[in-house]
Amino acid sequence: MKNLFLTLVLSLFCMTMIGQDNTSALIPMPNKIINGNGAVFTVNARHSAITFDNKELKFAAEKLQDIFKRRMSENLNISPTGNGTIRLIIDNSLEHKEQYSLEINNKGITIKGASKGAVLYGVITLEQILMGDICMTSQKKIREIYIYDKPRFEYRAMMLDPARNYLPVESIKFFIDKMTLFKYNVLQLHLTDDQGWRIYIEKYPQLASKDHYTKEELKEIIKYAEMRNVTVIPEIDIPGHTCAMLSAFPEFKCEHKSATPIELGKSVDMMLCASVGKVYTVIDDIIKETSKIFPAPYIHLGGDEAAIKYNWAECPRCQKLMAELKYEDPSQLMIPFFSKVLKSVKEAGKKAILWCELDNIYMPANDYLFPYDPEVTLVSWRGGLTPKCLELTRRHGNPVIMAPGEYTYLDYPQYTGDFPEFNNWGMPITTLETCYQFDPGYGEPLSGQKHIKGIMATLWGEAIKDINRATYMAYPRGLALSEAGWTEMKNRNWESFKNRMYPNLMNLMKEGVSIRVPFEIEQKLENYR
């Protein structure tokens, strides 16, 4: 096993030595690059300094200072004033909030961005230039290059699931640090499910699992993420996936389930009863408290995999409510359920995100499971249903986030016989190449993609017990998906991506990140001897 590990690391190292230049580590690939004419800028602490024109850029300036110290052993001064040779500037003329430019010539480095996050992205791109062109970097030199860049999609998310297996605050911060390197800008935290309730609600302390996040801890995560241009969005999953909630409020079970015991970690397929009035009062309180903690404009409320036929379809109270509303199918109870819930969301000043459910979990499917409010953003996730979901969201006017299971479910195995080795229900294999082939627009003309907000890579937590397993499952596939979210299709290329990936994987390993070495896509090691 030790020899295999050393072989894999050596293989990875050898691959990083091939084709080195100032674009050989750029992930996601910028959308416009102009190579220079051979000019070089030399970094020297005696003659180089970092200046920034806005106090909001202090974090980016400090990060850049750290980069030069680590990569070139040059400790540059930083200053909010002056005319340094390395300048960070907020440029309000740039149209997209994450648009930036990076210009390097023999006179210096200028990074301009429409926002502090955009400038930070310019800094991140600069570090990848240094990382790829290591021979020049070792000489403290940077080749001339001009990059003008903005994302294809505004919403580029990763999702962690501490509801299934709790992740400490420091682990989540560690994960945020790494996703930032590849220009992800949203972290969705799946905070509640059958196995646990991880957010402390002051009005209902009985909800909280033994391991949970306090209000102060969540605010700490949010602030940490915000500095790195990452918005944290909470997910409170209802009306299904609610065994943890039902263990605290057994009176919220459907009538015929009232005597059914709940064992956290084992009980599933139970729902909040649609006919119990207090359910909506408690949900309203939860939404209000959660909304005060999270400044994000969105709150995710699940809405997926509701076991309606085992709950609402058999509940005498729900049957009575169906008769009163003249409904023929119990799934129609989702209409009044979410009508009340969305009212709470609106009153809290938020917008809702829901997992998109259709009238069948496989094709053929014809329409939504129930009519979604046009203001609700939907997430397309079920394998094989995304083209239909894309069509329906376009027709009904719902914004959509693309997270199709066959491309973006990073808890699935990466290779035959690979992890997860437990809680694997027969998961399909999602290879690195499969992830890279993902086109969030599904080949539709631009007019048919206008309602697509972006993408989300998900890490469901049933088989992810700690952050090391989370990053192992996330990388390198998360690199591929970052390019799906950022880079225009015309600028994407699988062969190019493979080469650009290796310096980034080596860098992650140096930073103590558990990754999977994608040995199956490479030439044999003897080709490099």
Automatic annotation (TrEMBL):
<feature type="signal peptide">
    <location>
        <begin position="1"/>
        <end position="19"/>
    </location>
</feature>
<dbReference type="InterPro" id="IPR025705">
    <property type="entry name" value="Beta_hexosaminidase_sua/sub"/>
</dbReference>
<keyword id="KW-0378">Hydrolase</keyword>
<feature type="active site" description="Proton donor">
    <location>
        <position position="305"/>
    </location>
</feature>
<dbReference type="Pfam" id="PF00728">
    <property type="entry name" value="Glyco_hydro_20"/>
</dbReference>
<comment type="similarity">
    <text>Belongs to the glycosyl hydrolase 20 family.</text>
</comment>
<dbReference type="InterPro" id="IPR029018">
    <property type="entry name" value="Hex-like_dom2"/>
</dbReference>
<dbReference type="Pfam" id="PF02838">
    <property type="entry name" value="Glyco_hydro_20b"/>
</dbReference>
<feature type="domain" description="Glycoside hydrolase family 20 catalytic">
    <location>
        <begin position="153"/>
        <end position="488"/>
    </location>
</feature>
<dbReference type="InterPro" id="IPR015882">
    <property type="entry name" value="HEX_bac_N"/>
</dbReference>
<dbReference type="GO" id="GO:0005975">
    <property type="term" value="P:carbohydrate metabolic process"/>
</dbReference>
<dbReference type="InterPro" id="IPR017853">
    <property type="entry name" value="GH"/>
</dbReference>
<feature type="domain" description="Beta-hexosaminidase bacterial type N-terminal">
    <location>
        <begin position="24"/>
        <end position="149"/>
    </location>
</feature>
<keyword id="KW-0326">Glycosidase</keyword>
<keyword id="KW-0732">Signal</keyword>
<dbReference type="GO" id="GO:0016020">
    <property type="term" value="C:membrane"/>
</dbReference>
<dbReference type="GO" id="GO:0004563">
    <property type="term" value="F:beta-N-acetylhexosaminidase activity"/>
</dbReference>
<protein>
    <recommendedName>
        <fullName>beta-N-acetylhexosaminidase</fullName>
        <ecNumber>3.2.1.52</ecNumber>
    </recommendedName>
</protein>
<dbReference type="InterPro" id="IPR015883">
    <property type="entry name" value="Glyco_hydro_20_cat"/>
</dbReference>
<dbReference type="GO" id="GO:0030203">
    <property type="term" value="P:glycosaminoglycan metabolic process"/>
</dbReference>
